[in-house]
Amino acid sequence: MRLLAILLFSLLFTTAGLARPIGAPGDSAGLPADTSRTKPAPALPAPAAHANLNDTLPHIHPRDANGRITDYTVAPGVTWHYDKPKPFRWALNIPRDLGQFPGYAFRKENKGTLMGLVVSSVGLWVADQAIVDWSQDVGRQLGLTPKSTQRTLFYVPFRIGSANLPFEFNVPDNLNSTFYYLGDGWTHLAVASSFWIYGGIKKDNRALRTSSELGEAIFSTGLVVQALKRLTGRQSPYVATKDRGEWHLFPSYNRYQSFVPNYDAFPTGHLATAMATVTVIADNYPEYRFVRPVGYGLMGLLGYAMLNNGVHWASDYPIGIALGYGFAKIAVRNGRTRVEETSADPAAPGTGWVRPPKRRPWYRQGHVAPYTYGPFTGASWSLKW
Questions:
Q1: Residues with Cβ < 8 Å from 49, sequence gap 6 or more?
Q2: 3-state DSSP call for residue 17?
Q3: 376 bridge partner residues
Q4: Which of 52, 115, 153, 304 is the most buried (most CB within 10 A)?
């Protein structure tokens, strides 16, 4: 119920006002190995032997000496430890995540997945025009206005050089626009803020880490998505000058900024960030099994809305979704520590919770070593992602 309360709070916050889009239980095999901490597992309460596991495990959250909830048993033998994150420290983790992504995405066991992404993207590209036309026909039959319309609550102009970056606070005024704003930046900000507020009030490190990882995953995803958009320059359906749109590869910055919809269709940023959000929450709260079905269902509505309003082609989706999933997995993997059981007997002497030592941030783990290369000698500094 705690997670449901957080999500309901974020939903109420989001529906109060939305802005323009920012454009932007799985394992984690292939990432660096877990730095496991050896620590006894807690004994289950006596009634747990006859109770549903999901009814008992979420309540096993012992507090440390500072009164913080740091350790969570989410399944038999599966306990995760979460350190308290510092505000906005997640921004310093983005370079690490970008550096780890190629090793995570292009490992050998992902060959089939990568091939599937290519095949599905090409197959959808062939059918793109037919899919958009069909989606809009269905929208007309259902009375869903395809135009993305909104009412501006306030507008603050802001420019950086030639780039116009106003701060707007809007509300959608039709059902299709409401579905579209499920992927808006304000929606994800509301979700992340809700976890941060709840975690601060309850001294709940998992909620705080979830908020931190959402920021980390969404911004990492957004950087790569924006880079790909500016490299591929694909037309959005509603401004397309031919079937399936044109591709203006490597448009200049000024050309891109002059009319963004003419260049920013591929890949989707809305579904990428939505996938990142769902994956971070679902991986940190695996005992709440409704997260993925509900999240994927909302993503389906978002995906349809973007076809109906002509913002995206269906072939823009697979790569965007994969990027959001990958960066979410990396953020979660780096944000928690697996705790191993030391005894099969929960009543064995010495049981209890011992806080594992904190890990140094990745950017403080560089190593200096001497080297000799021909006539040259000196020292080198290396950093392992």
A1: none
A2: coil
A3: 373
A4: 304
Which tens digit of pLDDT belongs to each residue from 98-133? 999 999 999 999 999 999 999 999 999 999 999 999
CA–CA dist 283, 338 (Å, integer): 13
**Containing H/E element for 200?**
helix 185-202
Give, in order, the Cα–Cα distances in Å from 25 to each of 28, 72, 104, 278, 352. Answer: 10, 15, 17, 12, 27
Question: What count of residues does the chain have?
Answer: 385
- Between helix 317-334 and helix 269-284 the angle, nearest 10°, is 30
Yes or no: say if 206 and 69 are a contact pair by the CB < 8 Å rule. yes
Q: Is 287 helix (H, G, I), strand (E, B) or coil?
A: coil
Residue type, 184: D
Question: Whole-structure pTM over 0.85, yes or no?
Answer: no
> SS3 string of 30-75?
CCCCCCCEECCCCCCCHHHHHCCHHHHHHHCCCECCCCCECEEEEE
- Do strands 337-340 and 37-38 pair parallel, antiparallel, or not at all (unpaired)? parallel
Residue-wise pLDDT for 338-379, tens only, equals 887 654 444 443 333 444 455 666 555 665 666 566 666 666
